Automatic annotation (TrEMBL):
Protein name: LysR family transcriptional regulator
SUPFAM superfamilies found in the cross-reference section: Periplasmic binding protein-like II, Winged helix' DNA-binding domain
InterPro entries: LysR_HTH_N (IPR000847), LysR_subst-bd (IPR005119), WH-like_DNA-bd_sf (IPR036388), WH_DNA-bd_sf (IPR036390)
Gene3D superfamilies referenced in this protein's UniProt entry, alphabetically: Periplasmic binding protein-like II, Winged helix-like DNA-binding domain superfamily/Winged helix DNA-binding domain
Organism annotation: Pontibacter aydingkolensis
Domain HTH lysR-type intervals: 1-58
One Pfam family, short name: LysR_substrate
Amino acid sequence: MTLVQLEYLIAVDTYRHFSTAADHCFVTQPTLSMQLQKLEEELGVQLFDRSRVPVRPTEIGKEIIAQARVVIAESKKIQEIVQSQKLELSGELKIGVIPTLAPYLIPLFITNFLQKHPNVQVVVQELLTNEIVEKLKYEILDVGLLVTPLEDKSIKEIPLFYEAFVSYINPNHPLAKYKSIKPDQLDLDELWVLNEGHCFRSQVLNICNRGGSTASQHSNLDYKSGSLETLKRIVETQHGLTLLPELSVLEMPEQKRALVHTFQEPQPLREVSLVVHRSFLKKKLIEALQQEIIAAVPEEIRNRKKEQVVAVGPQIKGT
């Protein structure tokens, strides 16, 4: 039994396809298949049910794969020890970030981070929360930037800052006359929200105390969007209002900032966190990322205390 065989085993479990696993391991499929066959012969068990598409681990295979992940993670800690002794950070850092954070947070810190750590190759993917968590579990990603708390015991959450929600209101809407508003003034019939699957959508509905509801039709326009920028344009050109994260309005032109209205205290907040696997590696790289993000966030946001954090998942009305 070798570490290479265990890595191939984990790759097949992750991608559930021998050819795809081979590509990610930078070997040919026959080479990968031969090594796994040798491993099965040595152990005297069948690790995968090859008759199914996609391939699935057998019951004994699941247990062995779980232990293989522990063994590989522990072996990589040797590299971590060596890396920790080096003055300069290097290697690859794979980051997953949710779409309602990516365009506003990444530009704040990425340039300084790359300048300070020129030997680090950063790979960023925009993904939904559940996709990031899944890829963290399979160690396809090193770290996630998303909204918490998620209450998932397989991951570790490191809060970075607390970002306020703001309302973005068409000038002709009745609420436009107020500089700040209360959540109970929001009318769901006039509220534009993101598609299902976005945690931001769940939080917006929770602010309205309608965690299980969906937005109703807006006159004769039914627009399903996965982009906050699109929702902003609809508010500007059509009617109604939407809610936005605070970072998204920082660089907004003065003319459009007139459409931004804050919430009265206590403001609804979202907790933005750096999320890693419980047994995560690349600790020095991730610590450097954490420090750079915190330093890049505006002081008002950076110093804000955790108060009224809006739940990420659906809530029952009245709770």
